[in-house]
Structure formats: C-alpha cells, structure tokens
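Bug #77: duplicate submission created two jobs. Keeping one. Sequence:
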Amino acid sequence: MNELARMVTDEAAEALGRAKIALVPIGATEQHGRHLTFDTDFAIAEAFARRLAADLGADALLCPGLPYGLSEHHLGFAGTLTLRPATLLAVLHDVAESLAAAGLRRVIVVNGHGGNVDAVRLAARGLRRDHGVLMAHLMWAGLAADTIAEHVGSARYGHACEGETSVGMVLAPQVVRADRIGPPDPGLPVLPHAAPPTPRVDLPLAYDTLSAGGALGDARLASTELGKKIVETAYGRALEFARAFAAGTEG
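Kept job's structure:
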C-alpha cells in the first residue's frame, strides 16, 4: 500500500510517479448518539480508503485524511467540532492543487459524513473548471443506498442508526460502544417532506430538532451480518469505479 504519511520524500516522489489517483478520506468529529464515538465517520472513511489503497496497489496514493467536516447541525450536542463550508472547500482545493503540482490530477474523496457532500461537490466543480483536476466523491451510504433501504427497518435512519452502527461493527469496531445501545428516542416532529433519510424538501435541520438523543433509527437492530451486506455492496461498487477512474475513464 502506498501511504504518503509513512513515506520520506524520495519514496513519495517514486510513488507519485507511478500513482494514477489519490485517495483522501474525510469525516467529521461529531456526536453519534449514546453508543458511537465522535470519530465514527472518519474511522469508517479511513478504513474504507485503506481497503481501496490495498486493492489498487501502485495505482493509488493514500493521503492523510481530514477528521473534521461540516457538522454545524450537531452543535446542539456536547463535543461536536465543525468547520465552516468555506474552510472545507479551501482545504479540498489546496490538497488537490498540491497533488496536481506533483503530477497527480485525479482524486477520490472517500467520505464518511453526509454533511460534507455539498462541499465536496462544489470543490470538484471548481477544481475541474479552474485547474483541470478531476475530483470524484464516494460515500458508503450512497454507494449502498439500495441495500440499506432494503434491510433497514426504521422510518428515519442515516445517523447512528442500525445501518451506520452495523457498518462500524465491520469497518471500525472500536467506534461501537455495544453496551450503550438502548431503545431509540422517539422522533421529534418535522415539517412535511423534510425528514431523513430521503427528504423531498431541502431544509437544513439541526439534529437536536430530530432526536432528543442525537441518533436516528434503532441501533438494537445492528449486526455484523447487516454491516457486511452494506459494506460488500458499497465496496464492490467503489472498487469498480476506482479501477476505471485510475485507468483514465472519465465518464
């Protein structure tokens, strides 16, 4: 595996000369209810990115990740740390421009936090327009949305739910405090068509207006079996895309 953080500069020069794509994991430092730790999103993204780097071999360079993201909607719960959108956009631009200066102009952001999606999309558009850099973005929850919808039973899910908890059990078991999993909090009322997981109206909602405990779904339904189903779907699709992207296929 080509892991930039573990190299010295002459090793990096050699790896950059061979690599076709860079992998940049990003996540968040935010509350995940009573049973998942604050680093859940980043730990899952980093584990996912490491698997990709291992399977892609010399074609990929695994870059140090970013454990902060856009988490203002979780600030109602103690411990959450957040960036501003402009900050995350600037970091993504700067990292991608640094890689481009070294000759690597294809980047995959491996994201573990849904709140980051809009910023990554905007960064990718600007990088392509202004610098000719192709930035792709993938997240396990989007890659396996059909599998999740098929197997998750809660009406509201998507954060510290049975799906995310199950994925954590498989990719980053250290984030799961199984002894703290209990009955879900009753969902708080939300305006029509604005509730997760698939709102039809785009309305930014703070998590303390969605759930008294900060989590959605019923984590008691989580299992390694469910986690493996979700990860298998998400990872298979991610690897298929990454191989084609590294080969120079654009669309």
